[in-house]
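Query form — protein Stage II sporulation protein M

QUESTION: What is the three-dimensional structure of this chain?
INPUT:
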Amino acid sequence: MREALFIKKNKERWERISQQPSPDTDEMASEFTQLVEDLGYAKSYYPYSKVTRFLNAEASKRYLSIYKNRREETNRFVTFFKYDLPLTIARHQLVLLICFLLFMIFLFVGFFSAKADESFVRNMLGDFYVNTTEQNIESGNPFGIYQTGNSFLMWIGIMINNVSVAFRYFGEGIFLGVLSVKDMVEEGIRLGAFEYMFFSKGYGGLSILTVMLHGTLELSAIIIAAATGVIIGKSWLFPGTLKRITALKNGAKDGIKIIIGLVPVFMIAAFVEGFVTRYYRMPAALSISILILSLVFIVGYFVIYPVRLQKSLTRAAKIK
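ANSWER: The structure tokens for Stage II sporulation protein M are given below.
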């Protein structure tokens, strides 16, 4: 059967299952079985098609719904972070990868722009911040700016600011994700200019160890938050087999799930910045350990685990 005919024949049923899944467990199981049969057919004849990816995602959703409707009580909080959020991330890992690459590219753009133009750092970071940092460097305390203020108030303030920024990136997705990408790119450029300021003074290595104590979590979460805006824009521009408005709603739902999942990450990152980064002169081994633990968490939970979970559910769906 040609792919177009296969889609035409089943599209109405797929849309009904996607938009109005049955609350009845038996009917849900029947829907799941039908999706698995369609998925098996699509993988055999159209292995690289969008319809195959769509059916794979829908089958995973139905499997998870059946799992959550078992007789045993399931903690919703645990289920969200163990299944819902990782599967949502798995559906959009290409978007996350693209956002990460863009951020890194413009970080280097900011770094080398600052190297080429001495005024660039001040334009990006502001005179007050640069003057304060230069005074701290002269006094032998280059990262003294992290030691100002009350740790607790600093933690709360940074956390609220970063969460609000994440929700702004998400909201900007309604403009096809363009503003979300723009703001993320500007953040990358600012970080690049920031790093050059310290590299030019001979504090490059210490700068990375200090900033990435909290930055590994914070910057990763910022990139992922920007990706939620892109997800919304992508859902509208490329709805696939769904109606455009339905695809937009699904993209918004996925985006808000990811944003909610990032809140604990922002909380921990702000805590580290408020309570730990101020002791940046701690032994290098301790700084590196914190950095590596943060990196392992980000890569493990937001990259490796979602892919493995999706693959395991797909295998389970085939067996079922």
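ADDITIONAL NOTE: The two ends are 25 Å apart (CA to CA).
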